[in-house]
Design a protein that fits this description.
Elements (H helix, E strand, L loop, with lengths): L1 E10 L2 H8 L2 H11 L5 E10 L5 H10 L9 E5 L4 H9 L2 H4 L5 E6 L8 H16 L4 E6 L9 H17 L16 H6 L6 E5 L5 H14 L6 H13 L2 E6 L12 H19 L5 H9 L1 H8 L4 H16 L2
Parallel strand pairs: 1-2, 1-4, 2-3, 5-7
Antiparallel strand pairs: 4-6, 5-6
Helix pairs in contact: 7-11, 7-12, 7-14, 9-10, 10-11, 11-14, 12-14, 13-14
């Protein structure tokens, strides 16, 4: 059985390009490691390239594509297409539906190794669980502490935002049993719904309905940003079984420098705009109920300062009520 692992990555500077270039040997190594196993692993790429990338870096990128195995799935898009479109291009690409029982993985290129037997084995174990439990969708949780910002307070705010989205899904949907000791405590207790590793089972009987629901959501809201990830995470468990498991990961890398205020300005805008878009879809009521439920505020306040929990909650509610 073929398993498609699509590495998703954004390139706007030398550091991001180097992260991709350094990954090319891993792509070949993953192919070697999978040979002789029960599942053939094919590793492809979904690269989003900023229009402002200097020409000399763009030339390096173009030349590097010839080093990718010829049968690999590769998409290179300009920045203006949006991360949400890239997410949908992987998770719902009909090219994969023509293959028998294919599982499609979306894996963040710079956070998840694929070149060791252990790392690839854990990804395959998660795929095995999808097949064994006849699941529609799967999330691979990070086995290291999660950092979502250069500044600690901004990282906490981003995590709180993600946790409210998790709480909009059915209770316990994304909680993984027996978490490693060093994972982020709030994620260990509640679960994380957007991790950087997702699996879609194109052979599942509910896949056509999930595809339809995503298409309707895309008609009603702007799904070019992170709202697409959040929507799928909330909606999929309503349709069918999902599964979770821990995978090998590294801490999220950050490039460049921003003041705390500058970074929060961008994060705040993302939280408001993406919540507003979710408010235009059929998961609106689920998210709204998660936000107004006082027990959820209390629960998150066990892990983070209540002032920050309330701040993020109010931002999300304001975004939804303002529609």
């Amino acid at each position: 059985m073929i398993r498609q692992i699509i590495l998703k990555h954004y390139i706007d500077r030398r550091e991001n390009l180097d992260a991709y270039l350094n990954k090319i040997p891993e792509i070949r190594k993953a192919r070697e490691l999978s040979q002789g196993g029960k599942n053939e692993v094919r590793v492809g790429l979904k690269l989003t390239v900023d229009e402002g990338l200097p020409e000399e870096l763009s030339e390096e990128l173009r030349a590097s594509l010839h080093k990718i195995p010829r049968d690999s799935f590769v998409i290179v898009n300009p920045h203006r297409t949006g991360g949400g479109n890239g997410f949908k291009q992987i998770m719902f690409n009909q090219a994969f539906s023509d293959k028998p029982a294919n599982l499609v993985y979306m894996v963040g290129l710079d956070q998840f190794p694929i070149d060791t037997e252990e790392a690839l084995g854990l990804l395959n174990e998660l795929g095995d669980k999808v097949e064994r439990d006849n699941a529609l969708y799967a999330l691979g949780s990070r086995d290291v502490p999660v950092v979502l910002g250069m500044h600690l307070i901004n990282s906490r705010r981003r995590i709180i935002h993600e946790l409210f989205n998790t709480l909009a899904a059915p209770e316990g949907a994304y909680r993984v049993p027996n978490p490693p000791a060093n994972v982020t405590p709030a994620y260990a207790a509640i679960g994380e719904c957007t991790t950087g590793v997702s699996i879609m089972n194109h052979a599942h009987r509910s896949y056509p309905e999930m595809l339809k629901q995503m298409a309707i959501a895309t008609q009603n809201a702007n799904m070019t940003g992170n709202a697409a990830d959040y929507y799928l995470a909330i909606r999929a468990p309503q349709l069918a079984r999902i599964v979770t498991g821990y995978v090998r990961s590294i801490e999220n890398p950050f490039h460049g420098k921003q003041s705390q205020e500058q970074e929060w300005l961008g994060s705040r805008k993302m939280i408001v705009t993406q919540t507003a878009e979710l408010g235009k879809t059929d998961v609106r009521d689920m998210l709204y109920q998660a936000l107004i439920n006082p027990s959820n505020t209390a629960r998150l306040s066990e892990f983070y300062p209540k002032q920050e929990v309330v701040e993020v909650k109010d931002l999300m509610l304001e975004a939804m009520v303002g529609l």
